[in-house]
UniProtKB/TrEMBL annotation:
Lineage: Eukaryota, Metazoa, Chordata, Craniata, Vertebrata
Organism of provenance: Neovison vison
Annotated signal peptide: 1-22
Name of encoding gene: CDH19
MF annotations from Gene Ontology: beta-catenin binding; cadherin binding; calcium ion binding
Record protein name field: Cadherin 19
Domain of life: Eukaryota
């Protein structure tokens, strides 16, 4: 079989090699192409590869030819093409063996087609030669432009970065065959972005070409172009955009825009008061713009704090100012960034400064006392008007207003306009040893300006209280007591305050010393003992002894008091103990106390009983006016469980039971309005025909008339019984057989206001029915 080969395009001209007969070539040899190319073939089989250029615009273009060496040109052979693409993409001329491409070929979609060829004798229908497999390869042409697959691109780089700093790398992709010439070899270039950026042509790496300041421009758009065929003529290209943002670095220091700030502050402003704000501007952003303010001279009066949200400096008072002491302040303020990198210290060598001038405004201040408090002393029992002390306050303002003094809520002291404090009542240290006063100073020119100062007055002690027994002594002595027996130990107390320890002296009065049956011995330790001065005592003759004990203190002058000691004679037991007498007196005292408690309890019970009695009487008076409603009338109640058949049914139950022994009244037909009115008047005069009900109603009427607490229900009459003598007939529908549809109820309008509602209901209803 002969085979023709189609070489790739060379400068757009396809080359067709001549056909070779496989049966004539039996050894491998090098064959020279007419244009100088050489290739090797093996004799004895068919060369099995075609090269087809892609992207041909025309259709049915010739690819190559299959020809058997047995074909003598008489058109008796038939060529067939088999395999993927046969008949749809590639067709063959069955007589000549020429192969054609009927569709456009794209190497990027499919670069290789494997087909089979067969030669059949058309006269016999048999294959002349066995099937031969061959390959059609689609050669590449530059028909795809480079594409950036990762766009959009965005990069962030710090401002002021040095030249050569890497920014980002962009990469384009070319779908052409990289092994086919320069079709897929790309070169990168900048279309926009000079002179700030540069790009490496082969790698696509973007670098910084010069330093950039974010405060001048914070972002740049760079356009990158990628060309294939290493930029030769006819190359295809693609572009992309890169957004490069500059991040901030702290390359700017804060600067005051104003060289001088003026503020005013009142001298009455308390410490911590904000008097003004200062502001520095920093072109940086975020953390790089945070700043701290300070006072250069470290002022003791003012301070500056930073508002972290607004980055303002707030000038505040560290302590109060005084217009009279200093009315103007001038100081310098600094500002620095809070976060500064060491590499950027060159931008922050010298801090920005500004001057602040504060003018103090004069205020009408309240008076000022010379000292924060006063402490005075005065002896007790000082006479009225005694001098205690003097307070003094001044007006700190320039006008120096006179000061008046006053004292609040004191009955013992007073103060004059000069601040002199005197007594108005005698002082007793034992009642109150200290007095806490509040003195108020008021300006005469402005009474609203006041101030107060505490004054403490200590009352000094004088010896004005004589000593006395420290407690009440209940002393007993046995009838058979011997002479010299100790019966009581006594002590004393003194309400006076002494600068040294108290010392008391005990002795009997002169009369008791001569005639007393008892003696006293001073222990010289502020105690003394009482002893019997004779043997034997009589309970019947002298049951009680009273002796006078004199107690003197060591004060200057010394004071002496007389205290009476009561001694009871006791019929002691065999052991000589006075406990039985003490218990007896205790029981008497307890009995007396018990009687008192019982008397109080009985009185309380009587009072509560009286209160409950009054409440019960009031409750009884509030009982209902008609107590018969609560009485039991069950003997007059009849229960029926049968359901009647209507008004015409008179056999369902005994109507006589409902009328309660009363005579069944004769039903009378209802007549004209005049007859009804006369019957109505008669019915008001006719009462129950039972004497029991008549008596019952009269009794209740009498009870209502005599009860002063009953409400005035004179016009209200209650009837629980329908009498049998009423000429008006029964109002009940039981036993009624006649129809009332033809009756006229207009007569109700003539019966008065009581029947007005019935007249409206029945009169209008009848008219509407008619």
């Amino acid at each position: 079989m002969n085979c023709c080969f189609l070489l790739p395009f060379i400068l757009g001209i396809p080359l067709i090699w001549p056909c070779f007969t496989a049966t004539e070539i039996s050894t491998t040899e090098e064959v020279e192409h007419p244009m100088g190319s050489h290739f090797r073939v093996k004799r004895g089989w068919m060369w099995n590869q075609f090269f087809v250029p892609e992207e041909r615009n025309e259709t049915n273009y010739h690819i190559g030819q299959l020809r058997s060496d047995l074909d003598n040109g008489n058109n008796s052979f038939q060529y067939k093409l088999l395999g993927a693409g046969a008949g749809s993409i590639f067709v063959i001329d069955e007589r000549t063996g020429d192969i054609y491409a009927v569709q456009k070929l794209d190497r990027e979609e499919r670069s290789l087609y494997t087909l089979r060829a067969q030669v059949i004798d058309s006269t016999t229908g048999r294959a002349v030669e066995p099937e031969s497999e061959f390959v059609i390869r689609v050669s590449d042409i530059n028909d795809n432009e480079p594409k950036f697959l990762d766009e959009p691109y965005e990069a962030i780089v710090p401002e002021m970065s040095p030249e050569g700093t890497l920014v980002i790398q962009v990469t384009a992709n070319d779908a052409d065959d990289p092994s086919s010439g320069n079709n897929a070899r790309l070169l990168y270039s900048l279309l926009q972005g000079q002179p700030y950026f540069s790009i490496e042509p082969t790698t696509g790496v973007i670098r910084i070409s010069t330093k950039m300041d974010r405060e001048l421009q914070d972002e740049y758009w760079v356009i990158i172009q990628a060309k294939d065929m290493i930029g030769l003529p006819g190359a295809l290209s693609g572009t992309t955009s890169v957004l490069i943002k500059l991040s901030d670095v702290n390359d700017n220091k804060p600067i005051f825009k104003d060289r001088l700030y003026r503020f005013t502050v009142s001298e009455s402003a308390p410490a911590g008061t904000s008097i003004g704000k200062i502001m520095a501007y920093d072109n940086d952003i975020g953390e790089n713009a945070e700043m701290d303010y300070s006072i250069e001279d470290d002022s003791q009066t003012f301070d500056i704090i930073t508002n972290n949200k607004t980055q303002e400096g707030i000038v505040i008072l560290k302590k109060r100012v005084d217009f009279e002491h200093q009315n103007q302040y001038r100081f310098r303020a600094n500002v620095k960034n809070r976060h500064v990198d060491e590499k950027l210290m060159e931008y922050h060598v010298e801090a920005s400064t500004t001057f602040i001038r504060v003018q103090v405004e004069d205020e009408d201040e309240p008076p000022i006392f010379l000292v924060p408090y006063y402490l005075f002393e005065i002896f007790e029992e000082s006479p009225h008007g005694s001098f205690v002390g003097m307070v003094s306050a001044i007006d700190p303002d320039q006008r120096k207003s006179p000061i008046r003094y006053s004292m609040t809520r004191s009955k013992v002291f007073s103060i004059d306009d000069n601040g002199t404090i005197v007594t108005t009542n005698p002082l007793d240290r034992e009642i109150s040893a200290w007095y806490n006063l509040s003195i108020t100073a008021t300006e005469k020119y402005n009474v609203q300006q006041t101030s107060a100062v505490p004054v403490y007055v200590q009352v000094l002690n004088i010896n004005d209280h004589a000593p006395e027994f420290s407690e009440y002594y209940d002393t007993y002595v046995c009838e058979n007591a011997g002479s010299g027996q100790v019966i009581q130990t006594i002590s004393a107390v003194d309400r006076d305050e002494s600068s040294e320890d108290h010392h008391f002296y005990f002795h009997l009065s002169g009369e008791d010393t001569k005639n007393s049956s008892f003696i006293i011995i001073d222990n010289e330790d502020n105690t003394a003992v009482i002893l019997t001065n004779r043997t034997g005592f009589s309970l019947q003759e002298e049951p009680v002894f009273y002796i006078s004990v004199l107690i003197a203190d060591n004060g200057i002058p010394s004071l002496t008091s007389t205290n009476t000691l009561t001694i009871h004679i006791c019929d002691c037991d065999d052991h000589g103990s006075t406990q039985a007498c003490r218990n007896k007196d205790l029981m008497l005292a307890m009995g007396f106390r018990t009687e008192v408690i019982l008397a109080v309890l009985i009185s309380v019970m009587i009072i509560f009983g009286f209160i409950f009695l009054i409440l019960g009487l009031k409750q009884r008076r509030k009982q209902t006016l008609f107590p018969e409603k609560s009485e039991d009338f069950r003997e007059n109640i009849f229960s029926y469980d049968d359901e009647g058949g209507g008004e015409a049914d008179t056999e369902a139950f005994d109507i006589a039971e409902l009328r309660s022994r009363a005579v069944l009244r004769e039903r009378r037909p209802r007549g004209a309005a005049g007859d009804i009115r006369s019957l109505y008047r008669q019915s008001l005069q006719v009462g129950p025909d039972s004497a029991v009900f008549r008596k019952f109603i009269l009794e209740k009427l009498e009870e209502a008339n005599t009860d002063p607490c009953a409400p005035p229900f004179d016009a209200l009459q209650t009837y629980a019984f329908e009498g049998t003598g009423s000429p008006a007939g029964s109002l009940s529908s039981l036993g009624s057989a006649a129809s009332d549809q033809d009756e006229n109820y207009d007569y109700l309008n003539e019966l008065g206001p009581r029947f007005k509602r019935l007249a409206c209901m029945f009169g209008s209803a009848m008219q509407s029915n008619n």
